[in-house]
Write a structure and sequence with these properties.
Layout lengths: L10 E4 L7 H6 L4 E5 L4 H4 L2 H11 L3 E5 L8 H14 L4 E5 L1 H13 L7 H4 L11 E5 L11 E6 L4 E6 L7 E4 L9 H19 L7 H23 L4 H14 L14 H13 L3 H16 L4 H12 L8 H18 L16 H8 L13 H11 L1
Parallel strand pairs: 1-8, 2-3, 2-4, 4-5, 5-8
Antiparallel strand pairs: 6-7
Keywords: Oxidoreductase
Protein name: Iron-containing alcohol dehydrogenase
Pfam families: ADH_Fe_C, Fe-ADH
Length: 388
Amino acid sequence: MNPFQFHNPTRIMFGSGMLDQLGSAVSQYGSKVLLVYGGGSIKTTGLYDRIMRLLQQANVEVHELPGVEPNPRVSTVRKGISICREYSIPFILAVGGGSVLDAAKAIAVGVPYEGDIWDFFMRKADIHSALPLGTVLTLSATGSEMNGSAVITNWEDQLKKAIGSIHCYPAFSILDPALTYTVPRNQTVNGIVDMMSHVFEQYFSRTTNTPLQERFCESILQTVIENGEKALHNPEHEEARANLMLCGTYALNGGMISVGMENDWATHMIEHEVSAIYDIAHAEGLSVLFPNWMKYVYKERLDRFVQFAVRVWQVDPAGKSDEQIALEGIQATRDYFTRIGAPSRLSELNIDAKELDRMAKETVRFGPVGSFKALHESDVRSILEMSL
């Protein structure tokens, strides 16, 4: 286990009825707020009206930035920054899933910065401050409600990049599982894939002597597997939705489940370049790529993949070689994703080999990716070819 420091400043307000505390939570940060949300589902479900009523009761002046995209655009972020500056807004409230939350974080760090927000994503500037923000989560997936990361797309340049900073952590996040009942099936599927993929990035590590962290990861994976299909079968299954929501939060909340472990993140970096060009859902790309990344790297640490197969997927090791066990675990991952309706090949997403060289090259713009196995441009291209 490696030395580590862990600090997470986000206050989680979890459970039924927590939304009623929104007004008092927001008013602690001033009398104005920028309300950031997506394509309008919060209006059709009635959530928008509830939030507006709670904020009005708290005498909070509301300015709005609707229409955040599934792969949030830097152009939308710039609009939010302009609104905050024009009206001297001291606080941001994001209502939605990970894309909305990520856009809000980028707005928060962009307001006090004198340059262009994209500088942070291209590693031309460091983040030193941000406006405070809060979130109301409506989709269990990314963990953005309790971490300091954000991913934004520059559609004009077809680039998708990430930032991470302690300044990006939400001040508070309201997590009411009932707010996820109306999530469309495909988004529930994507959320399941996303949170499992976050755990994979931390679990498949070269660091040794981390039994507690490994079991944290395995328990989240098992809980997602058990509850994912329940939620898909019955979207208003309260226990399943609550368990998925908590899993999504814990799966990526600044490293709690993997403190002292070296993480990988190569598959996420590869997928970012796929969705930067083709504008697919992030989790759709992960569903295709991750089993193929596993097949490409499993020999780097066969023991971890054997453990994964036996503990997570209950693969029977009797009479089998370690390699057979590991490959069964990888196949079980692919089979589960397929069973819940996630794609297995890039061709299912209308992606062919035309941009493979470009995606591989951009993935390693800042150097090799991954720590489980450092991937160079040729490695990335091979994984993309396997995924066609």
